[in-house]
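User: I'm writing a tutorial on reading structure tokens. Could you give me a worked example: one chain, its sequence, then its tokens, then a sentence or two explaining what the tokens reveal?
Assistant: Sure. Here is the example chain.
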Amino acid sequence: MFRPRGAKGLRPLALPHRRPKGLWEPSLGSEGLSALGGGSAREAAPPSFLAVLIGAVLLATPAQAEDRAALVARSPSLALDGPVTPLVAPIAVGGAGWGPFRRLCVTKTMLRPDDGQEVATSPPSCFNVEEAREDGGTWQLALRTDPLPGGMRVAFTTTRDAAGTVGETDIAVPEGVAAPPPPVMARLRGIFRAAIEANAMPPATIAPGAEFLMPLPVGAVDPDLRVERDGLVCTAEGEATADGRRVLVAICGASGGGEISPGRAMRILIAGRFAIDVATGMVLRHGYGSWLEMEADPRGSMGRMEMRGVSRQSLE
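And here are its predicted structure tokens:
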């Protein structure tokens, strides 16, 4: 089994219990888990990405719902090397399993209802590529999260091939942490696998003005969540470069929701711009706005809430 350097003698990690979701892409270690320890998923501490909305209750507002155009208009700008050139001919995206990538980070903030200023409700969620080697067209990847609450970093391994398929994920933590039950470990592996899948697309030829889909594996994060058309619906805006690499710039959006607690529904809309690496199909940058509505808890413990947020991603 392929393991990252220094991963010898490690044991699996327990999955935290469920909380309402903020933004969809299941990205990175501290967003998939924030506490270590054995026991069931219900006994572990909440992960930071699920706690974003819990920590942002004071940012809730009765503001009017935003549509896709409004979200794109207020989405963060992409850090590109130069201007975007309109797409005038079909472009083939993907075909290489990996590139010279060393670090992936996602930063999510909420907007204050009074002045629209961004408020951080959790730290950036990042992991580092410690080893990447190609073996017969498939890349073997060893990654490690930035320090989680308590200072621990989680190591995991996976693969990605030329077809954009992400393989099984193996997760390990230092000695002394009790192994969780197999169903919990299986879900945790799915979350880390989805962290790669949600920041990439399979090979495709994209024509000017044509829609294409970037899958969002939300079921790995929570089976009660659903996204329309199973992903982000995108339209190519043009070409550019980012960190010297050719990228396809697209406007993408998704909508969906689910039940976050018995009898309490959630609806979410996200939209913004994505810079997709032409060689690999990996997302090198994203900047999108989000609008979230949570219905009132039928038990009366929490009222109806609407929240606005933004997300920024970079693959260096």
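What the tokens reveal: The mean pLDDT is 80. DSSP finds four helices and 15 strands in the chain.
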